[in-house]
């Protein structure tokens, strides 16, 4: 389905915020600071768990070496991104480091309505918008083992000027401070362990939906998953 298909939408918000539309949600949202390893986790899930559908975001950022249009992102120019916003084709969108990113609405809703387990990997602003649009979505925060490790990972990329790195670190501090907004935190000490924990959470969410339908009670307390190598055996 084309990413611009606005089927089932309401009128877009002029502020760019998501517009609430009821869906049969089996949706998990993965977020966390830049450099924490979200893309690596997503790549591993795509390789090992093909039954999970992973949304591909649209962005105005230029492709990096090795990136393929439609695989890592749908790469568009500003004119096309403006058109997607105006037509209501994006579930959410946000600006980050001078570029815009958004989630195509139609392909996601198509799979949610079919009962497919869906995963979004987006930034903090996008996660907040999705939670407003899809209240039953489960928000998962991917955290680094420590601040020093996150700085090391970001600095080790060597792909960005110093001023861009400083902006990313400043944003990362704000994102880490928002971790309590998420239902679950996973600490990324091992990509395979994070993937295992994330799949278990998604399966649990799908089973609960199948048995009980839409939750009507108060939200469950947020849980913090320790990395596997810190757990008691």
Which key terms come to mind for this protein?
single chain; 233 residues; alpha/beta; Rossmann fold; four-stranded mixed β-sheet; globular
Description:
This protein is α/β, with parallel strands linked by helices. It has a domain at 27-55 and 116-230: Rossmann fold. It contains 7 helices and 10 strands. A 6-stranded parallel sheet has the order 2-7-1-8-9-10, with helices on both faces. The longest helix is centred in the C-terminal third of the chain and has 22 residues, at 191-212.
| Coarse morphology | globular
The proportion of residues forming helix, as a percent range, comes to 25-40%
Query: Sheet bearing the most strands, described?
Result: 6 strands, parallel
| Name of the CATH architecture of the domain at 27-55 and 116-230 | 3-Layer(aba) Sandwich
CA radius of gyration is: 17 Å
CATH class of the domain at 27-55 and 116-230: Alpha Beta
Average of pLDDT: 82
Order of helices and strands: EHEEEHEEHEHEHHEHE
Strand arrangement, largest sheet?
2-7-1-8-9-10
Which structural class matches the secondary elements? alpha/beta
Care to count the β-strands? 10
CATH-defined fold name of the domain at 27-55 and 116-230:
Rossmann fold
Stretches where pLDDT falls below 50 for ≥5 residues?
5-23, 215-233
> What is the terminal-to-terminal distance?
46 Å
**CATH homologous superfamily heading of the domain at 27-55 and 116-230:** P-loop containing nucleotide triphosphate hydrolases
DSSP helical segment count: 7
Proportion of strand residues: 15-25%
Write the layout of secondary structure elements.
Blueprint: E1 27-31, H1 38-48, E2 53-54, E3 58-59, E4 74-75, H2 78-86, E5 90-96, E6 99-104, H3 105-113, E7 118-121, H4 124-133, E8 138-143, H5 147-157, H6 162-177, E9 184-187, H7 191-212, E10 223-225
Parallel strand pairs: 1-7, 1-8, 2-7, 3-4, 8-9, 9-10
Antiparallel strand pairs: 3-6, 5-6
Helix pairs in contact: 1-7
């Amino acid at each position: 389905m084309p990413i611009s298909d606005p089927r089932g939408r309401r009128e877009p918000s002029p502020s760019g915020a998501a517009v609430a539309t009821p869906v049969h949600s089996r949706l998990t949202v993965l977020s966390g600071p830049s450099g924490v390893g979200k893309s690596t986790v997503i790549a591993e899930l795509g390789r090992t768990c093909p039954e999970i559908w992973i949304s591909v975001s649209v962005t105005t950022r230029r492709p990096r070496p090795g990136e393929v249009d439609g695989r890592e992102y749908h790469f568009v120019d500003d004119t096309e991104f403006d058109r997607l916003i105006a037509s209501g084709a994006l579930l959410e969108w946000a600006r980050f480091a001078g570029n815009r990113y958004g989630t195509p609405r139609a392909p996601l809703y198509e799979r949610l309505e079919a009962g497919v387990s869906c995963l979004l990997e987006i930034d903090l602003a996008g996660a907040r918008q999705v939670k407003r649009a899809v209240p039953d979505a489960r928000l998962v925060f991917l955290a680094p083992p420590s601040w020093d490790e996150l700085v090391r990972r970001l600095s080790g990329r060597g792909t960005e000027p110093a001023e861009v790195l400083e902006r990313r670190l400043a944003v990362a501090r704000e994102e880490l401070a928002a971790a309590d907004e998420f239902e679950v935190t996973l600490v990324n000490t091992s990509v395979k362990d994070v993937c295992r924990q994330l799949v278990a959470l998604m399966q649990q969410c799908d089973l609960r939906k199948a048995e009980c339908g839409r939750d009507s009670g108060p939200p469950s307390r947020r849980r913090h998953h320790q990395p596997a190598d810190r757990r008691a055996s």
